[in-house]
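cron nightly-structures :: item 1 of 1
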Amino acid sequence: MISLKKRVFEKKEFSMMTGEVMECIRNDDELKERDSFVLFDIEARVCVQQTCLDLLEMGKEVRVVCDGVSIPQPFDKEITLQ
């Protein structure tokens, strides 16, 4: 069973895979065993994309909540989510 622990990290970079977050993942027994992540955020074209790419590079499975992201230009949505 996975317990839910609230963690809050200040947004300092485009990707949320900052040193602080990476350290938390490495030091938390539950998180370091996690293979998949779900992403949602306001800016999909930059922040979600960079976080997603970083997680994929780490060999993680990533899901993006399409209705949980914002893309200012409607014509960018399909391309960005792909």
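cron nightly-structures :: done
Strands lie at 36-43, 61-70.
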